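STRUCTURE:
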């Protein structure tokens, strides 16, 4: 279920409500221009769809981004590398083409700093070396 406030749409599933309940602005946002592959369920859990998400800024707790896909579910997974790390996410706000996403678990500061410093927007779409991204022990 969703409801609209002016031009923004706020989702009402349990993951989005839990994500919205987290502290706002706990971490500084870093500008970035990175693409992530995303996976999300359609038609319940009978079908998994994929797409790409363009990230405009990121912090340890969430991100602002945009996608060509307009049917992204309120909860989805960001895929880092060649499915080496999956990050559970919930959309807490939709504003036009923009989505405000909260991570269900905080990301390591080292990883967020590296993502924000990347000059190649496609660097995280293919297989990565976890040690280069601060993901030792988290990614395969």
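SEQUENCE:
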């Amino acid at each position: 279920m969703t409801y609209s406030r002016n031009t923004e749409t706020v989702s009402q599933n349990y993951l989005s409500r839990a994500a919205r309940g987290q502290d706002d602005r706990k971490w500084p946002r870093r500008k970035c221009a990175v693409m992530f592959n995303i996976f999300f369920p359609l038609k319940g859990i009978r079908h998994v769809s994929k797409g790409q998400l363009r990230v405009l800024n990121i912090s340890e707790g969430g991100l602002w981004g945009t996608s060509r896909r307009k049917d992204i579910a309120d909860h989805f997974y960001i895929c880092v590398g060649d499915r080496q790390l999956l990050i559970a996410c919930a959309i807490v706000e939709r504003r036009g083409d923009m989505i405000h996403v909260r991570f269900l678990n905080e990301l390591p500061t080292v990883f967020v700093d590296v993502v924000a410093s990347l000059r190649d927007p496609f660097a995280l779409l293919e297989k990565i070396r976890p040690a280069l991204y601060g993901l030792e022990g988290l990614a395969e």
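REMARK: Residues 1-7 have pLDDT under 50 and may be disordered.
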